[in-house]
Amino acid sequence: MIPINKTGRVLNEPDAGMYVKILDDEPSTGGYLILMADNPEFRRGFDDWIQKHQLEEYMYESRMVGSWLVATAIALYASWVHSALESTRI
Fold first, then answer.
1. How would DSSP label each residue in 22-39?
2. Which end of the chain is less packed: N or C, by CB atoms within 10 Å?
3. What are the sequence ranges of the domains in the chain?
4. Nearest to 59 by CA among 40, 42, 75
5. How large is the angle between the packed helices 55-62 and 73-88, nearest 10 degrees?
């Protein structure tokens, strides 16, 4: 499961060391706001917006592996693998 509203760190290149936070923005936009920054306060960085159903695909396509306080990278990777297997079924 991909953690929502929790701060994590990106573990792999090209964004290794960056902070990441996925915000549930459903009340305003119906999707997720993905924040990336070089500091845990998210003062300098960038963001991206995706629709709710795109989250697992976004994480898989960006190859982002994150380390969150409440979720392990293993659980996140398992979610990506499951998603990838589902998309390759004939």
1. EEEETTTTSEEEEEEESS
2. C
3. 7-88
4. 75
5. 100
Q: Which residues contact 42 (CB under 8 A, 6 or more apart)?
A: 19, 21, 35
The amino acid sitting at 54 is Q
In this prediction the pTM is: 0.67
CA contacts within 13 A on the Cβ side of 66: 28
- End-to-end distance of the chain based on CA atoms, in angstroms? 25
Lay out the sheet containing 45-51: strands in order across: 45-51, 31-37, 19-25, 7-10, 66-68
Answer with the residue of higher pLDDT: 86 or 53. Answer: 53
